[in-house]
Every structure is written in structure tokens, then in C-alpha cells.
Write a structure and sequence with these properties.
This protein has 281 residues and is an alpha+beta fold. Helix content is 28%, strand content 29%.
């Protein structure tokens, strides 16, 4: 019944102001005053502020959200014939009267989707303060860009697609080239990797779920469509680097390369067992 009545009283709703607790002063016999708490105040629609009329049962324990059959202004604005409501009721009834805003679009690894925080207001009142929603339904283009950047370029995605694992290995191998040659600029920048995926992934893909459905069909026609090649991963200057100049081992001992000037492990590191240091010649 209250939800039915709320449909005609959407401008008579209020949210309890928990930050502001008015205090009144009651006279005493000695002429002084004794401080006591006044009626709780509500933030109403269109900037109004009101309190529940003292003779209402709801005034004893003010609910978080209320609707009032009437708002009467005397010494202040009073709400009369008050009932407790849930703000979600107003959202469902208000339709196009609500305003929605979205903030903090972010990549969620667990859901493999871009989420944003939705705020829903009715006549200025936040009936939904902060609700996580799928950003792909709000701004598909922006959600797609975030999906490509975080899931495919940054690799922040838990997936079993074979191309994904191959590309991660290929990018790690390309990074080894810079470490061995001690030169920056040999590996393609993240922007180039983004463009690679951007040119091949449909515009409708905004999340891991969308990608899975799209790739299931596309890989049948072209299995290697999303495989990064050495040409995609390296800059032209990399052609001058000869792999034979940077062996993987010295004799039986493996070699590793690191390009981190000033750090202890900068340069070439040879790994050998401790007993090899004391072996007889």
C-alpha cells in the first residue's frame, strides 16, 4: 500500500540528516535552560528541510527515509501523516524523473569487466548513493578501451585463451632483447600493442564475457588473428641485434641479463651451484 501511495508523493520524501541534530532549549523553573535534543531533521526534495510532526509515531524513532502525506509550514516545515519507505521504491516508480551519474570507471579482474559507480538522484535526493554497475551499458566505447588496455595490454586477466598465453610469452621474450642489448626503444610501446588489438577486436566487445563469445566464432575462421609476431613487438632498431651475441649459457652454467643501472643485479649474471666454486681443477 505504501508503494502505491508513494507513486503520487514522490516530491514528499525525505532522507534523515544524520550529520545535523538540532538542539532546543527548554525553560526551567529557575529561569535557566536545560538543553535537550530537538526533532530530527530530514533533507527533502528540491532543497527543502523538514521534521516529522511531534505527534507522529515515527517521530519517536525516525526512519532513514520517509514519505509524508502533507508538508505544513508553521514555525518550521513539518511532515504530517508519515510512513517509512525504502529509497529503492522511489527509483522504480520515478522513471525518467531520476537523474543518473557515473564515476570511477575501473577494471575488475574477478568479473573481467569494467565497473563504474552509479548515483541516482530524485529532485536532488540521492536515492542510490553508490551502486556498482557494468560500465559497458553506460559508455560502451570507453569500456572497450579499458578492457583492451587492462586485460590484453597489461595482462590483468585470468583467462585460458591460448593466444593470450602465447602473447604474454612473446612480450617477455621481446623484453629480454632490451635487457640483453642494454638499450631502450627496441620493444614496441604499449600504445602499439593497444592498436594491434583495437584493429582486430569488434566494437561490441566491452568485457571478458563479450570477448569469449566473439572469439569463439572468430578463431574458427582465423586462428592466428590475435597472435603477436616479432614484427609487432619490436622496433626497427631491433634488427641490428644478433641473438648469438647474447648466449643463454656459458658452458653448462646459465646466464641471465638485466638492464637496471645502479641496481645489484644489473648486467649479466651467471648461475652456478655452490660446490662448483670449490671444485678441483
Amino acid at each position: 500500500m505504501h508503494q502505491s501511495l508513494l507513486a503520487g508523493l514522490l516530491s514528499h520524501i525525505g532522507m534523515l540528516d544524520t550529520d545535523r541534530k538540532p538542539v532546543a532549549r527548554a525553560p526551567t523553573a529557575g529561569g535557566g535552560g536545560q538543553r535537550r535534543r530537538g526533532p530530527s531533521e530530514y533533507a527533502g526534495t528540491r532543497g527543502a528541510r523538514f521534521a516529522i510532526f511531534p505527534d507522529s509515531p515515527q517521530a519517536r524513532k525516525p526512519p532513514a527515509w520517509v514519505m509524508a502525506a502533507e508538508l505544513v509550514e508553521t514555525s518550521r516545515l513539518w511532515a504530517r501523516t508519515v510512513a517509512r519507505i525504502e529509497p529503492e521504491w522511489a527509483e522504480a516508480l520515478a522513471g525518467d524523473l531520476v537523474s543518473r551519474s557515473y564515476s570511477e570507471p575501473r577494471w575488475d579482474t574477478r568479473r573481467a569487466a569494467v565497473l563504474a559507480t552509479e548515483k541516482v538522484t530524485l529532485y536532488g535526493l540521492p536515492i542510490v548513493a553508490a551502486r556498482p554497475v557494468n560500465y559497458g551499458t553506460v559508455d560502451a566505447a570507453a569500456a572497450r578501451e579499458l578492457f583492451i588496455q587492462h586485460a590484453l595490454v597489461d595482462g590483468d586477466w585470468q583467462t585460458h585463451h591460448a593466444f593470450f598465453a602465447r602473447n604474454q610469452q612473446a612480450r617477455e621474450a621481446a623484453g629480454d632483447l632490451e635487457r640483453k642489448a642494454r638499450r631502450r626503444g627496441l620493444v614496441a610501446a604499449d600504445a602499439a600493442i593497444f592498436d594491434f588489438y583495437d584493429q582486430r577486436i569488434p566494437k561490441t566487445v566491452t568485457s571478458g564475457r563479450h570477448f569469449d563469445a566473439s572469439w569463439k566464432k572468430a578463431r574458427r575462421a582465423e586462428p592466428g588473428l590475435l597472435d603477436l609476431t616479432p614484427a609487432d613487438l619490436t622496433a626497427p632498431a631491433a634488427d641490428q641485434i644478433q641473438a648469438d651475441d647474447y648466449p643463454a649459457s656459458w658452458g653448462e652454467f646459465p646466464l641471465s641479463y638485466e638492464f637496471a643501472p645502479g641496481e645489484p643485479d644489473d648486467g649479466v649474471t651467471m648461475s652456478l651451484p655452490l660446490q662448483a666454486l670449490f671444485a678441483e681443477n
